[in-house]
Design brief:
Blueprint: E1 2-8, E2 13-19, H1 25-35, E3 43-46, E4 68-73, E5 77-79, H2 80-100, H3 103-106, H4 108-111, H5 117-139, E6 147-149, H6 151-171, H7 181-208, H8 236-252, H9 255-282
Parallel strand pairs: 1-4
Antiparallel strand pairs: 1-2, 3-4, 5-6
Helix pairs in contact: 2-5, 2-6, 5-7, 6-9, 7-8, 8-9
Length: about 300
């Protein structure tokens, strides 16, 4: 048996917990919740005040030096499912509102304007993308962490909802000029292929993690032609996501859509680089030829 001393990150002792070889960090968090004001979901447990969060499934034998732990309060939490549903429902309804009720933004000019075919296609693409995201949140994604800080909800919704209004305003504007048909055809084809690839990737990742577990495995192609991208990058879901918005930008030839694509690419690149680094650290036999998000380059 091991006595684990529990402190806050401000070095205030909360008490001692008796742990065995089979005790996990998740179990320790439950015991901490009994003697403190910190619910399990609000706890970040680390071996040093400024150290990294220790995974819930880590056990005492794997943490032989762990005799003293520090608890950081992560603040009020909210479920990932709730966050994603709010993030994605906003753009779905905001864009539709601008498209079908143009007078909201453009006044009488909008009421008398013609809804171009390109704008209709863009509405369809935008709606399909966010509807797919909502359905994936409900039926596909499995999260290793159940919650996130509630403050992130406002930041994330501000990003998605704000960019949605910015893009929708320009594409549905009475003065919007559709690009040549060849641009529309190429953009729509790229969007369709990448949306399909993104879905295929998410389904593969879902099948790697049994329900109710936090199992992690090296993702590999599963026979679906669209998943062959796993041979070249660690996060093809991000690669396909960026590809979808590049297609949307070509389809509409709209500068705000391009800015939205660029912002998304920057953020997803950061996520991909982080995940790529973790994969290489966690799996010694991780494929060396893979890049993070762009084959052969990045």
């Amino acid at each position: 048996m091991v006595q684990v001393e529990v402190y806050t990150v401000k070095n205030k002792k909360l008490g001692d917990i008796t742990a065995s070889n089979t005790t996990t960090v998740g179990d320790i968090k439950k015991e901490i919740a009994k003697v403190s004001k910190f619910p399990v979901d609000r706890q970040s447990l680390r071996s040093e005040v400024k150290g990294k969060d220790i995974k819930n499934d880590a056990t005492i034998p794997n943490l032989e030096s762990l005799r003293k732990v520090f608890v950081k309060d992560l603040g009020p939490q909210i479920g990932w499912n709730t966050v994603f549903l709010l993030e994605y429902a906003g753009p779905l309804f905001i864009y539709a509102a601008v498209s079908f009720r143009p007078w909201i933004l453009y006044g009488d000019t909008g009421s008398n304007s013609t809804f171009t075919t390109t704008a209709k296609i863009a509405l369809g693409c935008w709606s399909i993308h966010y509807l797919k995201r909502i359905l994936e949140t409900l039926f596909v994604h499995r999260f290793s962490h159940g919650t996130m800080p509630i403050r992130n909800l406002f930041k994330n919704c501000g990003y998605y909802w704000g960019f949605c209004l910015y893009v929708a305003y320009h594409i549905n504007h009475p003065l919007f000029t559709p690009p040549p048909l060849v641009f529309q055809a190429v953009g729509l084809l790229l969007f369709a292929v990448c949306e399909s690839g993104n879905l295929a990737t998410h389904l593969l990742l879902r099948n790697l993690r049994p329900a109710g577990s936090t199992v992690r495995k090296i993702p590999r192609p599963d026979g679906c032609p669209l998943n062959i991208l796993f041979d070249f990058v660690s996060c093809p879901n991000y690669s396909y996501e960026v590809g979808s918005w590049i297609g949307f930008t070509i389809l509409t030839s709209c500068i705000p859509a391009g800015l939205f694509t660029a912002a998304g690419f920057y953020q997803m690149t950061l996520w991909a680089l982080g995940k790529h680094k973790n994969y290489k650290k966690e799996f010694p036999d991780y494929p060396k030829q893979r890049k993070a998000i762009i084959p052969f380059i990045l």
